[in-house]
Each structure stands twice: as structure tokens, then as C-alpha cells.
Amino acid sequence: MTSPKANPAAAETPTSANVETIPALWYHDADMYEAEREKIFFGEWLIFCHEALLPEPGSYVAYTVAGRPVMVIRGKDGELRAFHNVCRHRASMVLREGHGKADVLRCIYHGWVYDSEGCLKKAPNFGGDEKSLCDRTSLFPIHLRMLGPLVFICMAENAPDFEASLGDLPAALAGTDLSGYKFYDMATHPIACNWKTYIENYMEGYHIPAIHPGLNRDIDFATYRVVPGDRIARHETGLRADRADEAVNNGLWVWVWPNCALNIYKNGMNLELVIPTGPETTELRYCYLFTDVSESMEAENRRTIDVSIEVTREDIELCEIVQKNLRGGIYDTGELSPRHENGVVAFHDMVRSAHKKARL
Ligand code: FES
Ligand SMILES: [Fe+2]
Fold first, then answer.
1. Per CATH, is 1-43+166-360 categorized as 3.40.50.1240?
2. Which residues have any ligand 1 atom within 6 Å of their CB?
3. Mean pLDDT per 10-residue run, the chain (360 residues)?
4. Ligand 1 atom at shortest distance from the alpha carbon of 90
5. Label partner for 243 (CA 20 to 30 A): which of 165, 166, 193, 227?
């Protein structure tokens, strides 16, 4: 979080009065979910990981994005490439999910081997014309672009313009060097809620006094505000003077459409991905990176992660409660706070716009 110097006047201005939430059906309906997978998760540029996970030739990151296994690998030529993690033989994942180093891309099922450009090189014991098979077989590619150390992918055949898709992100990160971080740890949290339920919770600080007592001790809630921009939203708040040294949340929080948050701490960052796994299930993927991962910083780095996990647990409990009621049939829409929920309004506008495109 930063001190609330940027644009306070804009944040004081209510975005609009009486803005209603999107309907409850959108949080559990299978057709709505399919439309969001198609238009948002398979159609847009998404932040996939931080480059620190891919330090050398053979480094890879593989996980499933809205039901589609994806891998990013660094080739012998140093280039990063993204592929669907789908073997062209009989559809196994080529690599098991996770991150690490693979000397070759050897499918875990029957051992077909692909090179880092996705071309099939060997089909052991195939018994037919292996050379011809290799010549006509390669992995399905995915678009990949970088913004500093942030790796973006787009699964659409014709990707939208990358620079335009970044919106205000480059401006929001100006003056923040994300490239000096080293990978420290990963954490995943399954949550029984729609992905939007969790994003919305991220998009407002309104709930902090009620459910995050630890975080609330550190921040000056009176100055807390969310400043939406083009395809991003930035949280801003002051820290309480007597907690400024203790608080780990002394950085910058930026949400990036559709499903990523960059939480910058004093000594590092958490790249937070909110990955839908079904209409009412989501996986949070946290990647913690710090400037110093040496033994001497172990206790401090762990403390940052412990604070993050405590806040996440508090959020997860509430999101799961909300999800039950979104599908329960009593609630349909509610009214958003002009003072505190302008970020939710901005997110809903983007979701509405994606559904409008889906219907065209
Ligand atoms: S499915 Fe990959 S080698 Fe058979
Ligand atoms: Fe929260």
C-alpha cells in the first residue's frame, strides 16, 4: 500500500449512486461460467507467472487455467514459449503440474518427446513411420508476451493487442522494480466459491475492520481507498504511524484484469492468481518472491507469508459464506457502497462487458 497521496479527489467522488451488483445467477450458473471461460480466460491476456520461476534453459511452469493445462518453458535458446500441456498422442499432460527443470519434454504417459519449440522428436517403440509422425506433430502453441518479469499468456487463436490489454498497468508499476525478486515459495488454496466472489472481495477494503483484525491494526482505515483504472485497480491507504515499522503490508496492491493481484511488500511480493476450477470452485495460487532469500532473512520472509495466509483464511471463510447465499435463491442483487466499493463497480462493468461480447 502506498500513502494516499495519489488522486484523493477522484477517490472521494462516488462512482455513482445506487449501483447494484451483478445478479446472483452469474456466480453459479454453468452457462455463465462457460461464457466466462471462453471470453475471459481463453480470450484475454492473463498473467501466468513471474520470470523468476524460469531462470534457465529447461525451466518450466505448468498448471491448469480454467480447465486447460498450460505450460511455459525456457528453451535452450533462452526463449520462453507457452504450450497447451496436452500430448498430441492420447491427450495426457506432457509434464506433471508444478515448476522445475525438465531436460526434455517427455510425456508422462507413453514417453513421446518434444523439443522446447513444441516439435515431436521421438515416439519410442511406436512401430510405424516415426520420422513422418514427428514431421507432422507438434504441441499446440499459446501466445506469450512479457511486461518486465511478468509472463503473460493468451490462449485465443487471434490474441487481442497486448499493449492495449495492459491498460494502466505499466503506469501503475512505474517506479516499482519487480525484476529484482527471487522465488521463495508457492501456496495454493482451494476455495468453494466462484472466481468473481473472490475477486470482488479483493476489490474493496470495506470488510477490513470486520474480518481482518490484524491487518486493521496496521492500516489507517479512514484513508483506505481503491482507485480503479483501465483494466486495473490500485489500493491505497496510509499505515498507522505506530505500526509503520512492524507492518509487512507496506507496499502496493494492484489488481490486474481479470484474475491477478500484485501484492508488493516491504521486502518482496506475492503474485496472486485467482483461477476458476468450476462454476463454484476456485484455486488461489500464491507465488512469494523476495529480494533476499538468504538464511538471514528466513524469519522475516516467513512472517510476511504467515500474515498473508492469515488474511487469506479470513477472506476465504467469508467468500464461501457469500457463495452459499448467492446460490441459495433468496438474494439476487444488492447495493454497492459509493465510498468503498467503486472497485467492485469497475470489476462488474468489465464482467458485464465480457458477457455482452459473448452474446454478440
Ligand atoms: S499420451 Fe503422450 S505419449 Fe501417449
Ligand atoms: Fe480481505
1. no
2. 87, 89-90, 92, 107, 109-112
3. 40 57 97 96 98 98 98 97 98 98 95 97 95 96 98 98 98 90 96 98 96 90 92 87 65 91 91 98 97 94 92 97 98 95 96 86
4. 1
5. 227
